[in-house]
Design goal:
This protein has about 675 residues and is an alpha+beta fold. The protein folds into 5 domains: about 60 residues, Arc Repressor Mutant, subunit A, CATH 1.10.10; about 180 residues, P-loop containing nucleotide triphosphate hydrolases (Rossmann fold, 3-Layer(aba) Sandwich); about 90 residues, Beta Barrel (Elongation Factor Tu (Ef-tu), domain 3), CATH 2.40.30.10; about 100 residues, Translation initiation factor IF- 2, domain 3 (Rossmann fold, 3-Layer(aba) Sandwich); about 100 residues, Translation factors (Elongation Factor Tu (Ef-tu), domain 3), CATH 2.40.30.10. Helices cover about 30% and strands about 30% of the residues. It contains 16 helices and 35 strands. It has a 6-stranded mixed β-sheet. The chain has a 6-stranded antiparallel β-barrel with strand order 15-16-22-19-18-23.
């Protein structure tokens, strides 16, 4: 290209793709222009420099503004607040509710303190604890007061306050149906009578025609149209348990007595139960259709047990009925309704429900199922309930007809589904306001149940120890037995024979004797006393046999009384203390004592009479006083270990765990024989 006017190449302006920075042109001696590098830009000190080392990334991002993170902003705000308020925070003083027992964690939560601080205070008192440990109320109160809190002591039983027996306003009450319990002797027609009243065949559904479970049913009286609730009991154990728990379930007892059989043992039991519960009795003289029926004899026999019917000048109503022919059933219902009117049964149906568990079971398909008799209020689906140590929410209510209902009022029996576990028969049921209250009540009851069980075990242990000490003092041991026979005559013969076996040292203790098969209740009784069960010409039912196998209870069957007595005699002989008989073997005199390094002291002896045997019992006699009794562990003649040494020979002896032997001591060697005694 052509040069400029002076022969030099003119400077070319920088294009858009070249550096925009200032550039100087310096001419060299040859007149050629060359670019000079721009001076280094000096950056002002900024955040990048403050952070330290300059890297490529930091250099490229030097001009970008760095934003502060939210977490950093929060930390800065908290720091500023902390610097601003240097004054210590004021401690919160709380009123701490302390029950009879409380965990360390729960106590710390109620005080709003750290559990580690509570544990530290306990360590100062010399106790090591974990946060899950339970401490008593006194210790908890001491800790709370030391930390500056006020304390309110409460009893654990306070959680049950207001559950039962609240007084209803008389204006809110209404008449309820009577609850009638049918009781009587076996096979006198209790369930058949109820079957006739219900117009349903209940007996055929029971195993062998015997009631297996408690049934609760409602019957409508044809005359008045009023409902009557009947409870059919298989026996009297459940009734007794309910009465023992304070649950007055029944209003009227219908005592069923067979006209052809008269008053029997279980009839008397039923009378006693009714009197103990203080409920009126209506006597139903059943089976009057039989040719050998004698109703007047029944009325006379009842007089012996202080049950005086109206025809004999008393106040007890009696009705002659026939469950088979449905005779006078309407009259019986009329008498029950009349008795209920006299009792004037009233309750409030608009309050939370209360009731009693009649029976409970664990159903495979439905879970825990409880038959409940509602006594006050109305039980509804969805209610939160507690019964004994179990709680739950009512999932379904099933009537005695098998129908699903939404609610059940007073005197109505229903099956309740929804419990966490099956409660016990006789437990009282109550509706509570929420699950927290239900958990408090059930946890308290479960705790009480465990404590009572432990107390009963320790009490039993104490009573057994007392009994054993008394037996030792009296020199007499007892052999517990349960006897079941086919007839009363055989039973009396067995009891008479066993009574003759008794001595001053040992005797048979008959826990229970009765006529009939071996039942599950017999096994339960045997388990409690570790007794044997003897069946004479009878057998255990399936449930009893299974329970006996499960609990390790021995059941023996006999058909001959002599075999039974001989076996019991042998077993009782085992309780007799054996006789110990000593047999003298020989004597030896200690001549000299030798100290042997690996053996210890060895007595050099001469056998004066009889024989000395290794392993026999020995007495060491010094100055006519026995100073040691033990066993002969070593017997040597010269250097050989021998089994025995005869009279006149010398030997070496050593005793087990005894070395204080002296020259001149006399050794008696003898054998102890145990002789088993027999009655």
């Amino acid at each position: 290209p052509a040069g400029g006017p002076l022969g030099r190449t003119p400077a070319v302006a920088a294009g858009p793709d070249e550096d925009d920075g200032p550039r100087q042109i310096r001419r060299g001696p040859g007149g050629a222009a060359r670019p000079v590098a721009a001076p280094k830009t000096t950056h002002k000190p900024g955040p990048q420099k403050e952070r330290g080392r300059l890297t490529v990334v930091t250099a490229l991002n030097a001009d970008e503004v760095r934003e502060r993170s939210i977490a950093s902003f929060r930390r800065r705000t908290q720091r500023l607040k902390g610097h601003a308020s240097n004054e210590p925070k004021e401690k919160l003083i709380r009123e701490v509710v302390i029950p009879e027992a409380i965990t360390i964690q729960e106590l710390a939560n109620r005080m709003a303190e750290r559990a580690v601080d509570v544990i530290r205070m306990l360590m100062k008192q010399g106790a090591m604890h974990k946060i899950t440990d339970v401490i008593d109320a006194d210790t908890a109160q001491l800790i709370a007061e030391e930390l500056g809190h006020t304390v309110k002591r409460v009893a654990a039983s306070d959680v049950e306050e207001g559950l039962f027996d609240q007084v209803d306003d008389s204006t809110d009450t209404e008449t309820r149906s009577p609850v009638v319990t049918v009781m009587g002797h076996v096979d006198h027609g209790k369930t058949s009578l109820l079957d006739a009243l219900r117009h349903a065949n209940v007996v055929s559904g029971e195993a062998g025609g015997i009631t297996q479970h408690i049934g609760a049913y409602q019957v409508v009286s044809p005359e008045s149209g009023k409902k009557i609730t009947f409870i059919d009991t298989p026996g009297h154990a459940a009734f007794t348990a309910m009465r023992a728990r304070g649950a007055k379930v029944t209003d009227i007892v219908v005592l069923v007595v067979a006209a052809d059989d008269g008053v029997m043992p279980q009839t008397v039991e039923a009378i006693n139960h009714a009197k103990a519960a203080r409920v009126p009795i209506i006597v139903a003289i059943n089976k009057i259709d039989k040719p050998d029926a004698k109703p007047e004899r029944v009325r006379t026999e009842l007089l012996q047990h202080e049950v005086q019917v109206e025809s004999f000048g008393g106040d007890v109503v009696d009705v002659e009925v026939s469950a088979k022919n449905k005779t006078n059933l309407d009259k019986l219902l009329e008498m029950i309704a009349l008795q209920a009117d006299i009792l004037d049964l009233k309750t409030n149906s608009e309050r939370p429900a209360e009731g009693t568990v009649i029976e409970a079971k664990l159903d495979r398909g439905r879970g825990p199922v409880a038959t409940v008799l509602v006594q006050r209020g109305t039980l509804r689906v969805g209610d939160i309930i507690v019964a004994g140590a179990e709680m739950g929410r009512v999932r379904a209510l099933i009537s005695d007809q098998g129908e699903t209902v939404q609610e059940a009022g007073p005197s109505v029996p229903v099956e309740v589904l929804g419990f966490n576990g099956p409660p016990e028969a006789g437990d009282r049921l109550a509706v509570v306001e929420n699950e927290a209250r239900a958990r408090q009540v059930t946890s308290y009851r479960a705790h009480q149940k465990r404590e009572n069980a432990a107390a009963s075990i320790s009490g039993m242990r104490g009573s057994l120890e007392q009994m054993m000490s008394q037996l030792k003092t009296a020199g007499r041991k007892e052999f517990p037995l349960i006897i079941k026979a086919d007839v009363q005559g055989s039973l009396e013969a067995i009891l008479g024979s066993l009574e003759k076996l008794g001595t001053d040292e040992v005797a048979a203790r008959i826990l229970h004797a009765g006529v009939g098969g071996i039942s599950e209740s017999d096994v339960t009784l045997a388990e409690g006393f570790n007794a044997a069960i003897i069946g004479f010409s009878v057998r255990a039912n399936k449930e009893a046999a299974a329970a006996a196998k499960r609990n390790g209870i021995e059941i023996r069957y006999y058909n001959i009384i002599y075999d039974l007595v001989d076996d019991v005699k042998k077993a009782m002989s085992g309780l007799l203390a054996p006789t110990l008989r000593e047999t003298m073997l020989g004597n030896a005199a200690i001549l000299e004592i030798f100290n042997i390094s690996k053996v210890g002291k060895v007595a050099g002896c001469r056998v004066t009479d009889g024989t000395v045997e290794r392993g026999a019992n020995v007495r060491l006699i010094r100055d006519n006083v026995v100073v040691h009794e033990g066993k002969l562990s070593t017997l040597k003649r010269f250097k050989d270990e021998v089994k025995e040494v005869q009279s006149g020979q010398e030997c070496g002896m050593a005793f087990e765990n005894y070395h204080d032997m002296r020259a001149g001591d006399v050794i008696e060697c003898y054998r102890v024989e145990t002789i088993q005694r027999s009655l």
